[in-house]
Amino acid sequence: MDILSSTAQQLTDQAQRLSAITGLVKSSPRDRIFLVMGKTGSGKSSFVARCTDKDVTVGHGLYSCTSDIDAYSYIIPGQNRCIHLIDTPGFNDTNRSDIETLSVLASYLGASYANGVSIHGIIVLHPITDNRMSGTSMRNVEMIKKMCGWTSYENLVVATTMWPPRYSFSNSGSGSYLDTESQDQDRAALEKRETELFTEERFLGELVARGARVFRHNKNGRRDANEEMFSARQIVSHLITESDTSMPPALRLQREIIEERKTLGETSAGMAIAGDLYKARKEHEKQLRDLEEDLKGQLAQADASHVAELEDLKADIQKKLKKAEEEKESLRKSMTELHEEEERAWEEKIQTLDKQFREQIAQKEEELEELEDSIREIREETMSMSSRWSFEADKEYEGHENIVKAAREEVVQAKDAHEKLKAQTGNITNGLANGMAAGVTTAIVTGGMLLDLRYSISNRLIVAMDSHVWGSSMCGHVE
Ligand SMILES: Nc1nc2c(ncn2[C@@H]2O[C@H](COP(=O)(O)OP(=O)(O)OP(=O)(O)O)[C@@H](O)[C@H]2O)c(=O)[nH]1
Ligand SMILES: [Mg+2]
């Protein structure tokens, strides 16, 4: 499969996977959905990949746009029970603002809530290798708490990741162990750090004190698929048992955005971001004022090189201020606007792919035409040179024919892949996005009394879908 077809396939697969989360594909009551959260690089995608045994993109996804959320599932062997894990982007990421991260979480979690899909628990990952609770880690924990709003955290686990391998063989090939004493010391230091993490209230202590269970994921540190899967599934198994005993309440973010119809900036998580944005804006404005003063002085002294430097700095701060202004605007978005934005993002991806497919097909058709012309010419030339069709000429002609056949096949394949994308376009926009729209509509129609209409709207959408196009390997039930 060429890159274009495989990108189209990935896009449709992602839309299909997300349909269980937005409620478009109905889950059985015994199925479970867990959010996997934590700072960037804490191992979320790796955890999801190992646990579900699926091909998850580790590192950053194919598209680092708003749809940077994905869901993967597996069926527990021997039990007809499907477990979905939602892989999420982390807060305080260098590539995206917190408001973008919160927007995408609010879009999908809001849609799932409005469509009656529950989140049964949260897995928070924290790399034990972080030598202190960094600002990024603190930010993530703060945002998770604000999004949850739970009074008890029995349905949340905190798992430390990145434990170093216990022992490893030296590179000398002698088979002797590396200095195990110093490894033991390193490990003791990590264990001390772990205790600090889970007892200090301002770190992860508050979660633990209110019922969160603590795990060491892949504690022996070997990058072994089976060991990692076993460890991840043990963690998930704990959350399944907890959710079987008592279901957690809906996330505060879901209630705020759907039931209370708050804008993003009015939600608890949004307010934390708004506070930071305000501080950053004030800081930039002060920097700008100081710079202007400086510039006036330098202009008086006619120091051209320093003036240019200050002008550069000023442009930089103005850019940051503009970004902060735009982010402030994003905080005003309601669920309807978030949904529209997400739908637009999907449509843009589809349109880009559609354009690339058309260009690819046009190019391949042109190549094919040239090949067909050249083989026609060769045939005519050979025929005119000899009255009899020789065995050699026949062989040569056959070779050319094969090249043309292969080119023809390529055109057919590109057209098929394009047709497939077009067929699924409707499912992506009408399926995934309408799943969200159903959420929005439901909340608006019922104004908070969600339950009755949730299923009827999403069911109508499900019935309207062509279940065949989605394939049959889904974990979920299309009615
Ligand atoms: N040594 C070690 N490396 C790990 C472990 N888990 C993940 N990694 C590596 O850490 C890097 C980041 O892992 P990801 O799974 O992409 O982390 P993530 O949290 O999804 O990161 P973002 O998508 O950027 O938020 C990758 O190179 C992984 O191979 C682990 O348990 N031990
Ligand atoms: Mg990831």
TrEMBL record:
Does the record bear Coiled coil in its keywords?
Answer: yes
Annotated Pfam families: MMR_HSR1
CDD domains membership: Ras_like_GTPase
Gene Ontology CC: one annotated term: myosin II complex
Q: Which UniProt keywords apply?
A: Coiled coil
Q: Which Gene3D superfamilies match?
A: P-loop containing nucleotide triphosphate hydrolases
Q: Which residues form a coiled coil?
A: 274-424
**Would I find Metal-binding among this entry's keywords?**
no
Q: GO MF terms on file?
A: actin filament binding; GTP binding; microfilament motor activity
**G domain location:** 35-93
Q: Enumerate the InterPro entries for this protein.
A: GTP-bd, P-loop_NTPase
Q: What is the designated name of this protein?
A: G domain-containing protein
